[in-house]
Amino acid sequence: MIVALHGAEFFAYHGFYPEEQKLGCCFIVDIEVEFTPTGDMNGDEISNTVNYEQLHNIACEEMKLTKKLIETVAEAIMNRIKDQYNLVDSIKLTVMKKNPPLSTKVAYSAVSLHYQKG
To answer: Has this prediction a pTM greater than 0.90?
Structure first.
């Protein structure tokens, strides 16, 4: 089973250069968590699944902690998900930085991570 968040937008202050950390910009986070349910899904209990609201909360909390690299941000989000949900089999996570400060127009830069249990 897969639970996902796509296109979660955050305004944050991540960036290698001081002006990026001062001005901030828009980031987009995509998260896909594959897992084996721990109980009967017909029981309709949130404890048997990965709660996408909690995934969003984890991303929100980590996006508030200014980092130089979006790689560091992505790794922190992934580690928090793994720590909270031991039933996770795999995680695909992408953090995109909209309009990075480059010499030409670029829609976004991105970092993608993939975790596979075992």
So the answer is: yes
